[in-house]
Amino acid sequence: MNSLGVIRVNLLIMGPPGAGKGTQAETLAQELQIINISTGDMFREAIRQGTEMGKKAREYMEMGELVPDSVVVGSTRERLSQPDCARGFLLDGFPRTVVQAEALEDMLETMGIVLDGVINIAVPREKLLERLMGRRICRNCGASYHLRYNKPKVENKCDACGGELYQREDDHEDVVRNRLFVYYKQTAPLIGYYFAKGVLREVDGARPIAEIFADLQAAVSGLPVAAPH
Ligand code: AMP
Fold it and tell me: Which atom of ligand 1 is nearest to the CA of 92?
């Protein structure tokens, strides 16, 4: 049983690049005691390990393009069937296209699982460029910081593990601009897709991290799955 008083909860977290999805997803998944699945992290790990999937993903990621649906759908299906998803999951960064959303629906139906909620962290476009370009990541543990909004205590060092901070290749300006273009063209239509299904909850992401998290908690505890039985 988790803080919602339920055994299992299955969620998606969405938002444009730079909305703070990764940071929020990690904390929320911890609180709900569910597994956080980030397809971006999956690909970065595959690239680090030099796997076939990593090789395929790399060229797209470097340009700020989406990895083809066929690659993403297969690896996400495999990930969701692992035993550590039995208490539920928080998917971060998947689906990113309507084709992926439809594939997810099929996957979950086959597995006999219901999607309990989709949370969209909304941030105006003009804030996203600054957020993405100021982002720094720990080379060692992957923790995320921001040069202005979430500074590490010691410059260039991770608070959690002391690892060196670096700027992701795809957080450089030209790639960031393309990622935003791709987001509005291919991923933003999913907001309407999930709204029409009645599972969408929106959170204002243009605020401090702690306030956004409080809203996320409120959104999740208002989902039908959390209602007293
Ligand atoms: P993220 O860490 O979520 O910002 O993802 C980084 C990059 O990984 C994206 O810009 C895409 O190139 C790739 N990626 C992650 N998730 C997906 C997905 N669901 N579909 C296609 N590409 C993805």
Answer: 3
Given ligand 1 and candidates 39, 44, 69, 172, which is best to mutate, with the most ligand atoms within 8 Å of its CB? 39
Query: What tens digit of pLDDT does each residue of 96-139 get?
Result: 999 999 999 999 999 999 999 999 999 998 899 988 999 999 99
Q: Which ligand 1 atom minimizes the distance to the CA of 41?
A: 2
pLDDT for residue 1 is more than 70: no
Q: What is the pLDDT of residues 167-195, one digit of tens each?
A: 988 899 999 999 999 999 999 999 999 99
> What DSSP string runs through the chain?
--TTS-S-EEEEEE--TTSSHHHHHHHHHHHHT-EEEEHHHHHHHHHHHT-HHHHHHHHHHHHTPPPPHHHHHHHHHHHHTSGGGTTEEEEES---SHHHHHHHHHHHHHHT----EEEEEE--HHHHHHHHHTEEEETTT--EEETTTB--SSTTB-TTT-PBEE--GGGSHHHHHHHHHHIIIIITHHHHHHHHTT-EEEEE-SS-HHHHHHHHHHHHHTSGGGS--
pLDDT higher than 60, residue 229:
no
